[in-house]
Amino acid sequence: MLLIYFAAPRLWPEYRDLLPGLLAEAGLNAIVATEAPDPVAVDYIIYAPSAPLQDFTPFTRCKAVLSLWAGVERIVGNATLTQPLCRMVEDGLTEGMVEWVVGHALRHHLGMDRHIVNPGHVWHPTCPPLARERPVTMLGMGMLGVACARALAALNFPVTGWSRTTKDVPGIATTTDLPKALARAQIVVTLLPKTPETENLLNAETLALLPRGAVILNPGRGALIDDTALLAALDSDQIGHATLDVFRTEPLPPDHPFWSHPNVTVTPHIAADTRASGAARVLVENIRRGEAGEPFLNLVDRSRGY
Ligand code: NDP
Ligand code: OXD
């Protein structure tokens, strides 16, 4: 069996070292390489959008494309891709996202900036409210959204989760009604995939539905937010702060107004990383399934786009 790695070259040594042992443990006899002189010989493709691969047509025997990324918007619409597409769901990715979301939510909730950057040595004696007085809304209640919603609810934040289909998550109020989800949210977290339906979901109209001064945390995708509308809402104080991890263009161009806006925090797409140690296990389990004729894990629904 031949597996080809079409992903970031800097991560290749980790996968090269981890995969053979895990494949052998699973009873799979496979070669893992970064080049396929004969594409017809390839059984599985390990993929990340950092690779230049665009044309999947020559890989006629390939049984699945296994994405190292959770978000698949850069491949899901590729008409040459006819093989099953699996996205990455992995504990390290989820834990990283929970830590990023909880950390940035607590920063804003507790007003930490006021004490961390205090050049005038001002004594600020105002106590923050308790978490139970700070409604949070999670836009997207998938693998990552639910994990983050649960972690925030465990700290007593009243969490409302919004998604396309109805959910039943103990301790979280869920809804499919966007205006209702936004009406009370003092902190909004966007953990949605980028699809035609979610693009510019937060725009001038929906940002205006939020309570004045609400904070936005976006570790989902840049295109979920209309940049111009967000900047206008920040300038008018309708939005108090935006902490953004993802952007329409990455790296964020040096002259982008987000860099210099006093109420924007930019993190460089580091909210949650796919760790090779966990991801390699997920890849091998899916290859085992493929070889055993069992259903793949984390299969992307091509018509839904995620
Ligand atoms: P999932 O596919 O598990 O969940 C997606 C959620 O979004 C689901 O609840 C889904 O609803 C909801 N959704 C999708 N479309 C709509 C819509 N039109 N209206 C309302 N709800 C919608 O994804 P994950 O939780 O695993 O990941 C979410 C995103 O996080 C990824 O797509 C990626 O873009 C981003 N990400 C960012 C990372 C980073 O480092 N910054 C790392 C990893 C992921 P339903 O359940 O009803 O289908
Ligand atoms: C992902 C990401 O989708 O890191 O996995 O953004």
CATH architectural type of the largest domain: 3-Layer(aba) Sandwich
- How far is the first residue's CA from the last residue's CA? 28 Å
Helix content: 25-40%
How would you sum up the major sheet?
Answer: 7 strands, parallel
Q: Give the class from helix and strand content and strand pairing.
A: alpha/beta
Compute the gyration radius: what is it?
Answer: 21 Å
Number of strands: 12
Taken from the alpha-carbon principal axes, the silhouette is elongated
How confident is the prediction overall: mean pLDDT? 97
Q: Mind telling me the CATH class of the largest domain?
A: Alpha Beta
CATH topology of the largest domain: Rossmann fold
Task: Draw up the topology in text.
Blueprint: E1 2-6, H1 12-25, E2 31-33, E3 44-47, E4 64-67, E5 85-86, H2 91-110, H3 112-116, E6 136-139, H4 143-154, E7 159-162, E8 173-175, H5 178-183, E9 187-190, H6 204-207, E10 214-218, H7 227-235, E11 239-244, H8 257-260, E12 264-266, H9 276-292
The structure holds NADPH dihydro-nicotinamide-adenine-dinucleotide phosphate (NDP) and oxalic acid (OXD).
